[in-house]
Amino acid sequence: MTRILLLGGTGDALRIARQLGPEHVYSLAGLGKVPDDLPCRVRVGGFGGREGMARYIEDERIGLVIDATHPYAAQISANAAKASGAARIPCWALRREEWQPQAGDDWRMVDDWAELAAALAAFKRPLFTLGREPLAHLDEIPPQQFWTVRCLDANESGPRARILAARGPFTLEGERTLFNAEAFDVVVSKNSGGSATEAKLEVARERDLPVIMLRRPELPAVDREFANVPDLLEALQVIG
Ligand code: NAP
């Protein structure tokens, strides 16, 4: 039996965790909801860097690490590749394909917050769908802008910002209603891929709205990469 350490924090990771037996471990950073109905073990919180993860792998006699974290969670992915390399066990990763711009889309690619803020200057009512990062910049909102920040946190909204606590998946109808009500003039997004949060891009397309897209970080090379959950689960059946 190969004991698996599954690194999660995404809907896809949860789908994999539901298929793992009690000898395997599902690991979460501890920022969101911790499921209490899984057949496998669940551990919560950081390992203490790559050395901490390497120690955990050894102590728990882990035989395979599966990195199913979000594509923008670059630190834990780097740690997983290094720690499993040091322990001489394989590291697999679930890497969702990126969304691609379609005909008529106006995507403005940025690498970091400074580039994002510059790209945003021309707009008045952005919808941020980047997680909690904009919350650290609420005191930088220019006088002509009103921000809507959609994230998991239920923070208080300010005079020039509204924090919308919401968890995907988001439907096309729901997004249309939100865009109608709030009259956004630009969408700010990560290129997360997958279908759960894709509807906003379709509504942006319908309304001819530009999208400021934060580029994905570089992720480490791994032993095997999968683009979807069924392919990964099939490969797991082969190793037993
Ligand atoms: P990150 O910057 O790559 O990781 C920061 C630190 O958090 C890691 O060094 C590690 O601490 C701990 N950590 C992260 N994921 C962990 C896991 N699954 N199990 C145990 N420890 C974990 O990650 P992040 O961007 O802050 O994201 C945190 C979590 O939220 C990830 O698990 C990710 O899958 C999920 N998430 C992230 C995003 C996003 O946009 N970044 C979106 C949706 C979900 P130690 O160094 O102490 O081990």
What does the model show?
The chain has 240 residues and is of the alpha/beta class. The protein folds into two domains: 4-96 and 220-239, Rossmann fold (3-Layer(aba) Sandwich); 107-214, Rossmann fold. Helix content is 29%, strand content 21%. It is built from seven helices and twelve strands. The protein has helices at 11-17, 49-59, 74-86, 113-120, 172-182, 199-206, 229-239, and strands at 4-7, 25-28, 41-44, 64-67, 91-94, 107-110, 126-129, 147-151, 161-165, 186-190, 211-214, 224-226. The protein has a six-stranded parallel beta sheet, sandwiched between helices. The protein has a six-stranded parallel beta sheet with strand order 6-11-10-7-8-9, sandwiched between helices. Strand 1 (4-7), helix 1 (11-17) and strand 2 (25-28) form a beta-alpha-beta unit. Helix 2 (49-59) packs across helix 3 (74-86) and helix 5 (172-182) crosses helix 6. The radius of gyration is 19 Å and the shape is elongated. The protein starts with a strand and ends with a helix. The mean pLDDT is 95.
